[in-house]
Structures are given as structure tokens and as C-alpha cells.
């Protein structure tokens, strides 16, 4: 089989790239290790920046987010037993974020890909990018026990943090990493969100908490937990009790509880691999970088990488210009590091670290107080939260 761009991974990066390239008349094939159902079953991000929503529209899949997304004009910080609204919309000259789940984004992209008759090979085993240093790259894989080779002009490594793309250039990559001493326990439940107008980020003596939503009838909540906790340690009742104990009394009293439909623990990590291009192999999304989820940047960064990468391929195939390809890594990394900084900062501000002494605790409290009382500091939070311009 032959194509112009071989895409490894059918997560949001791979699917969005495929759709943008298809719109520009560039042929592509996606190779995905898992089944489509498995990919859709992973409950992850939920908050989209304006840039990401615009990109979904550009890819022809904006109907879902436009019809079912919930626009948020503000966020709330809860600490010291009180709520502090941050008017993100007002502080950024009218920008907003939209609650629309990664599962839904992925679903919309999969449907569009199916409708366009584009090839996605699910349950492709032993996928291996090859010969990307030369002019004729290939990707080998196995399907139903048979070996295959996909010939292509370029390979897009959209295969996440544990994928084969970055692993195949291990000796050429510089890695920057920070691992945090806690995880997030997330629960999805079909109950109305406690705060349908704002995402709530809490810092209490018992640790971080987050109240988010997928729709007016489906909520997503998180609490900071020790890294060695297991999902089995957390009954639904224990989760709801813990969440309530970390919020202010009014909000806690309004939480509607119900059976969880998904419960998982994710470790928190900051990670960047440099560069993001190796000859004709390009890394995008989680394959190249990870942020701790506190700033809701992971999926949005994946989308901006894909925007730059699709533009680079379009310039190559349509305008015969290497400019976008040559600058891809540098342009992406500039934005990536700003999101890394913001995600690290918000994580440091909103969590309780196991070994924090009295001094660091007092400094955290002072920073929170400064943040909600200084327009300049609130503005810096707001403009990063809605997403920096491309
Ligand atoms: P992925 O979504 O990881 O997709 C990569 C795809 O490649 C997968 O489908 C995988 O099966 C496939 N693949 C892997 N290896 C191979 C291979 N060898 N061959 C073929 N295919 C392969 N972000 C937020 O903003 N907010 C959150 O709350 C949040 N929660 C998260 C929770 C978890 C547990 C994780 C892991 C991430 C979370 N993120 C969150 C981050 C966000 O979900 C990611 O940034 C986003 O999924 C990145 O998309 P991607 O397509 O680059 O990678
Ligand atoms: C969600 C996840 C986040 O990391 C975040 O900062 C806000 C919301 C969510 O899953 O809805």
C-alpha cells in the first residue's frame, strides 16, 4: 500500500491531522494499535481552547462541539473555604473555553473519517517507522498475523507517550522531564454538574480537587491522590465524601452524587522531547510532550501541533515549499514550552505536595491571595487558560 502521509496513532492528534490533510486533498492512512472501541473508551480531557474549536470547524467536524459543547466564561478557585471567581472572558477581551470531551472529539473525527472513506487500520501490531532519514520512508506493521508495508512521503508520529515513533529515535532525542509526587483520581458520573457555568479548581488541606463536566447531565470530577493508590481503594462513596471535604460548604452541599460510570487514576508528569522532526518523521501531541492536566492543555497542545504539521505538509505538497517542514519543530516547541510552564505553575499552585514545609505552604497561600486580588495576576492566568495565540 502507498500513501502520502502515514499517520501512526488514531488518538485526537492522528485523527485531526488525517481530516485536515484530507480537506486539503492530501492522501493519508492511519495505523492504530488498538480497536476503535478501545480508543473511544479512554476518558481523558474535557476543555477545549478557542483555537482547538476553530480547528475542529476547519476540519469539517465542528457540528458536535457547536451543538453540544458548553461555553465557559469563567473559572473558580476554591481555597481557604471560599470561592474566588476569575472572569476569564472579561480579562481576555472576550475569549472563552468550551467543555466538550475528548471522547466526543474522537468520535466526531472517527465518523467523519468513515464518511469520507479514509483508511484506518485498527489493531495494527508491531508498527515500525522505517527509512525516514532518506526520501522513501516506510511503515511496517502486522494485521491478522500478516506482515505489511505502507510506503509514504512522510510519517506523522501521533502515537502518544508510549508510542513507537519517539522510541525509534531514542538516541537522537533530548528529553526534559518532571514527575509529580501524586496522581489524579477521576470519576465520570451521569449527574448534573455542580457548577455548569465555571470549571472549579480547589486547593484544600486535603489536596487538590476539580469539578468539570461533559454535558448538563454528565459530570467529571477529580481529586489529588497518592501515587500508589489503586482504583479499588476508592468506592464511589469514599470519592464523593472526599470531593465534598475539599470544597467550600456551599458548593459541597450542592454536589449531586450517583454511581460512577468510569473511574481511573492518572499520574502527573511534565515531559518534552526535542526536536520534534527527524528527517521525514514528525512527532505530534503526547508523542512529543506531556503536561500535568491541571491547566487542561494536553489535548489543546496536540491540536496546535497538528495545525502546524498540516500546514507544513500542505506547503510541501501544494506550494512545493519546505519552509513549514523546516520550521515545524522550532515553531511547535515555542508554544509547547509556554504551555509546559503554565501547567507546571498551576499544578504547583493548586496541589498539596507531600514534603512541603511551613514556609512553602505560606508562600502558596500568599500567591493564591495575590492571584485573586491582582487584576494583572488574574489576567496572566486567564490568557494562558484560554490558550495563547497560534
Ligand atoms: P493519544 O490520545 O495518547 O493517542 C495516541 C494513539 O496512538 C492511541 O490511540 C494509541 O493507542 C496509539 N498508539 C500508541 N502506540 C502505538 C503503536 N505502537 N502503533 C500504533 N498506534 C499506537 N489532557 C487534558 O487536557 N485534560 C485531562 O483531564 C487529561 N487527562 C488525561 C488522562 C490520562 C490518563 C492521559 C493519558 C492523558 C490525559 N490528558 C488530559 C492528556 C490528553 O488526553 C492528551 O494530551 C491527548 O490524548 C493527546 O492526544 P494524542 O493523540 O497526541 O495521544
Ligand atoms: C478537565 C480536565 C482538566 O485537566 C482540566 O484542567 C479541566 C477539566 C476535564 O476532564 O473536564
From TrEMBL:
UniProt keyword Metal-binding, yes or no: no
The protein's Enzyme Commission number: 1.14.13.2
Enzyme class label: oxidoreductase
Sample GO molecular function, one term: 4-hydroxybenzoate 3-monooxygenase activity
FAD-binding domain boundaries: 2-343
Key words of the record: FAD, Flavoprotein, Oxidoreductase
InterPro entries: FAD-bd, FAD/NAD-bd_sf, HB_mOase, RIFMO-like
Residue ranges of coiled coil: none
Protein name (Swiss-Prot/TrEMBL): 4-hydroxybenzoate 3-monooxygenase
Lineage: Bacteria, Pseudomonadati, Pseudomonadota, Betaproteobacteria, Burkholderiales
Amino acid at each position: 500500500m502507498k500513501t502520502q502521509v502515514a499517520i501512526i496513532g488514531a488518538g485526537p492528534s492522528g485523527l485531526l491531522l488525517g481530516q485536515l490533510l484530507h480537506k486539503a486533498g492530501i492522501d493519508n492512512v492511519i495505523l492504530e494499535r488498538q480497536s476503535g472501541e478501545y480508543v473511544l473508551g479512554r476518558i481523558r480531557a474535557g476543555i477545549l481552547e478557542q483555537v482547538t474549536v476553530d480547528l475542529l470547524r476547519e476540519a469539517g467536524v465542528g457540528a458536535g462541539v457547536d451543538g453540544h459543547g458548553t461555553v465557559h466564561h469563567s473559572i473558580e478557585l476554591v481555597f481557604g473555604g471560599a470561592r474566588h471567581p476569575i472572569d476569564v472572558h472579561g480579562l481576555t477581551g472576550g475569549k472563552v473555553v468550551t467543555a466538550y470531551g475528548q471522547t466526543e472529539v474522537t468520535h466526531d473525527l472517527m465518523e467523519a473519517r468513515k464518511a469520507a472513506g479514509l483508511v484506518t487500520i485498527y489493531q495494527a501490531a508491531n508498527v515500525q517507522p522505517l527509512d525516514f532519514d532518506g526520501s522513501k520512508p516506510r511503515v511496517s506493521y502486522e494485521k491478522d498475523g500478516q506482515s505489511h508495508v505502507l510506503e509514504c512521503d512522510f510519517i506523522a508520529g501521533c502515537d502518544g507517550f508510549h508510542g513507537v515513533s519517539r522510541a525509534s529515535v531514542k538516541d537522537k532525542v533530548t528529553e526534559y522531564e518532571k514527575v509529580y509526587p501524586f496522581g489524579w483520581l477521576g470519576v465520570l458520573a451521569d449527574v448534573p454538574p455542580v457548577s455548569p457555568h465555571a470549571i472549579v479548581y480547589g486547593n484544600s488541606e486535603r489536596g487538590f480537587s476539580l469539578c468539570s463536566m461533559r454535558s448538563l447531565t454528565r459530570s467529571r470530577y477529580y481529586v489529588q491522590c497518592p501515587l500508589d493508590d489503586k482504583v479499588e481503594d476508592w468506592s464511589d462513596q469514599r470519592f464523593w465524601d472526599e470531593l465534598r471535604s475539599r470544597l467550600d460548604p456551599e458548593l459541597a452541599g450542592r454536589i449531586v452524587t450517583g454511581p460512577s460510570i468510569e473511574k481511573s487514576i492518572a499520574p502527573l508528569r511534565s515531559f518534552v522531547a526535542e526536536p520534534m522532526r527527524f528527517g521525514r518523521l514528525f512527532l505530534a501531541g503526547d508523542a512529543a510532550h506531556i503536561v500535568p492536566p491541571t491547566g487542561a492543555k494536553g489535548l489543546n497542545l496536540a491540536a496546535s501541533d497538528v495545525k502546524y504539521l498540516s500546514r507544513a505538509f500542505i506547503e510541501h505538497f501544494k506550494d512545493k515549499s519546505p519552509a513549514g517542514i523546516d520550521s515545524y519543530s522550532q515553531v511547535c516547541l515555542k508554544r509547547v514550552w509556554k504551555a509546559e510552564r503554565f501547567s507546571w505553575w498551576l499544578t504547583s499552585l493548586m496541589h498539596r505536595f507531600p514534603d512541603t514545609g511551613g514556609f512553602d505552604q505560606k508562600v502558596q497561600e500568599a500567591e493564591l491571595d495575590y492571584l485573586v486580588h491582582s487584576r494583572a495576576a488574574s489576567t496572566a492566568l486567564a490568557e494562558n487558560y484560554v490558550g495563547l495565540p497560534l
